Sequence to fold (584 residues):
Amino acid sequence: MIERTSLKAQTNNIILLLIQQCKTQNQLKQIHAHILKLPFSPAITPLLSFAATNPAFFSYAHALFQNLDRRTTFLYNTMIRGYVQSKQPIKGISCYKDMLKDGLIKNNYTFTPLVKACSMILRKFRHVGLSVHAHVIKLGFCRDPFIGSALIEFYALNLDMGKAEELFEEIPVRDVVLWTVMVDGYGKMGDVNKARLLFDEMPEKNVVSWSAIIAAYSRISDFREVLCFYRRMEDLGLKPNESIVVSALTACAHLGALAQGMWIHSKAEQYKYTSNSILATALVDLYSKCGYMKLALTVFEEIHDKDSGAWNAIIAGVAINGDAMKSLELFDRMILSGTQPNETTFVNILTACTHAKFVDKGMSLFESMGSVYNIGPRVEHYACVVDLLARSGKLEEAERFIDEKMGGICNCDANVFGALLGACRVYGKVDIGNRVWRQVVSEGVGDYGIYVLAYNMYREAGWDDEAKNIRRLIEKKQMKKNAGCSVIEVNGIVEEFLAGDVLHPQADKICKANKLERNDETSSNTNLDKRAAPKLARASATLLSSLKLNAMWTSASSVDVFQHTLGGDARELDAGLASGRNSQ
Fold:
C-alpha cells in the first residue's frame, strides 16, 4: 500500500513537470491521454489549472471543465480568473452563477477576478458589479486588500469617486496601485485638484502614477502642467514610459514649444521609443503645428506601419501650413496604401479644400464619404462644406446645401453660422446674413464670435440700427472675448501670458518694466497735441468701459518685456496657431 502511494506521488510529480514544459496544445492533449490510461486516476486539477491560466490553452481548459463530474471551489476560481485573462468577462460571471447553483463556498480568491470581470463590462452591466459588491459585504471580505483594490477600480471606472474614496479609506494598507487608481479616477472625472492632492500624498510613486497625473492635466488641456510634471520626472532621474512621452509631445504641440519638443524627441530616441507609431504621430503633429513641415514629413516617412492616425496628422499638418495640393496627394497615397480613412480624415481634407477654395474637389470628396467609404457625415463635415461654399462666394449654394443635406438652418451650429456670417460680410450678401442672424437669435446661440461677425457685417453694410442692437445684446448678455494669449519659450521653458495676467511669478517686474516703456514712448511723442489729451483720455475710458476690458497690459507686450527682462535664448510662439486660442 505504501509502495502504491509512493508510486502515485512520483507519477503525479512527473506529470506536473511534464505539464509545465508544454509548449503546444497537442502536447497538453498527449499528457491528458496518458493520465486517462493510468491504472489509477491522478488529479486532473494541475492540468486544468495550467491550461486555464495560459490564454493559448484556455479553450482546452474550458472543454475539460465542462466535462468534469465534480467541480471544486478552487477549480471555479481558476476558471473565473482564466475567463478574465482571456478577455471573456461575461463567461466568467456565468461561471460564478454556476458556482452559486452548485452551492460551493466562495472565498477571497473568488471575488478579485470576478470584480475585474464586472469592470470590463461596466458600461452595459453596471448592476452586476453592484450585486457582486453586495455578496462581498455579505460574506465579510470588505477588508481584503485585493478585493478592495478591485472594487475601487470598478467604482473609479464608473466615475463614482465618492464610493471609491469610501472604500479607499476603509483599507488599512494601501499600495501604490491603489493610490494610482484613485489619482486616475479623479483625473478622468476632470477633478485635477483632488487628483493632485492624492498624488502629492502618495508615500510611493511609480511610473504609472506619474502617467496618471500627467494624463489628468492633459485631459483638461493644462499643457503647462503636463510639461512641468515631465520635467520633474526627468529631474528625479525617472524614466518616463511611452504614454508620458506622447502626452509631453502633445503638450509641446499645443503650446508651440518647439525647442522643448525637440529635446523630448531626443530623449525618446535615447529610450528607443521612436518606433512607437502613436509617439511618431505626436511628433508629426508637433512639427506641423510649429511650421517645421520638412521635419514632420521626415518623421512621417520613417513610420513603418502608418495607421489612420499618422495619415490624419500629416494631412492636417500640411493643410494648416497652406499646401492643399500636398494634402490631396497624401490623401491619395493613404487610399493606395490600403488604409481606410475615417471621419477625422475627411474633416482634415475638406478643411484643406476650403482654404484653397477647391470647391469641386471638396464636394466630390464629401459625396464619396457615404458612397465609397460608407462614412456617415457628422456636423463637422457639413460645417466644412458650408465653409467651403461660403468662402468661395457661393452663398446661395451654401443655403441650398443646408436645406437639402442638413434639414434647414435650424439644425446648424455655431461653426456653420460663423462661416455664413463671415462670408456674407466679405461678399456683401447682407440679405442672406440677415436671415442667418435671425436664426442665431431664435436658437439662443451665445457665441461671442458670432455676435461680432454679425455686428461687423451690419456696420460695414451701413445697417447701423442692427449693429447697435447687437452691441446692446452683447452688453446685456455680458459677453466677453477670450483673453488674448501669447507664449514665449526661454531657455527651454515655456512661459504663457494672458491679457491682464497678474498671476505670473514675475508679474510685478514685468508691469514696472512695461510702465517705464510706455512712459518713454509717451515722452518721445512730441507731435501729440497736448490740448487733445483730455479728450483722448475720456474717449479711451469710454471705449474700455463699453468693451468691458480691464487688462493692465496685453499678452504680447508682456512677452516683449519678459524677453528683455530675462534675456536668454527666447523664441516667441504663435499661440493662436498652436493652442487654438485667440492670440493678441
Q: What stands out?
A: The longest strand covers residues 485-490. The CA atoms of residues 111 and 548 lie 60 Å apart.
